[in-house]
Design brief:
Strand order of the largest sheet: 2-1-5-6-7
Shape: globular
Strand content: 15-25%
Largest sheet: 5 strands, mixed
CATH architecture: 3-Layer(aba) Sandwich
CATH class: Alpha Beta
Number of helices: 7
CATH topology: Beta-carbonic Anhydrase, Chain A
Distance between the termini: 51 Å
Order of helices and strands: HEEEEHEHHHHEEH
CATH superfamily: Carbonic anhydrase
Radius of gyration: 18 Å
Oligomer: single chain
Helix content: 25-40%
Structural class: alpha/beta
Number of strands: 7
Amino acid sequence: MNQIFVELLQDNAEHASEFQSRFDDVQDSQRPDVVTVCCSDSRVLQDRMWENDEPGRIFTCGNIGNRVVQRTDAGDVVSGDVLYPVEHTETDTIVVVGHTGCGAVTAAYDDLTGGISEPAGIEHCLELLKPHLEDGVEALPSDVSRTEAVNRLVEYNVDRQVEFLEESDDVPQHVDVVGVVYDFQDVYGDRRGEVHVINVGGETDVETLRDEHPEIDSRIDRLWEY
């Protein structure tokens, strides 16, 4: 047996011991307060970033590029992974979580600017991402480095995912949609792992957001106001 998996089972035994009683209230149903759409990058600690240790509190979705879009025969729709808790568990907050140095955004950027070759499954994911980044790539300042371009496109991608949710008839108007960036590369400051709010309900202007949400004004920031 692979030793890594053995270690995972050992860690799980500790988890099961600690959480034995924490599932009492959610064994038969769930009413999560929020659904998060995170990039599945291993550096993005999807529950840990919120210090969450409460089963049933956060409905967590993960994919490369923190996409909310699913392609169907009827066209592009809000992914069922994201929509399920909104539709069935009365969850009324959606948080789209991008992150600095996103590999999926990097791959999409490279493909849009020069073309790359990826296995079919990855290419499918990039094809869902690229249409939402094309205008952002065109709008990038000419003097930014590749790293700077990617981190600006991380924000642009979060904005487009939020926009898709806001414009979808499948997401009720009372549902709050927030876009954030998780920074572990000292891009926004020196507090690695901090979440920075960049979009609330489609509003992206930093000063406007700070005026409208003074209780979190210190957490609102952007690299790029295009």
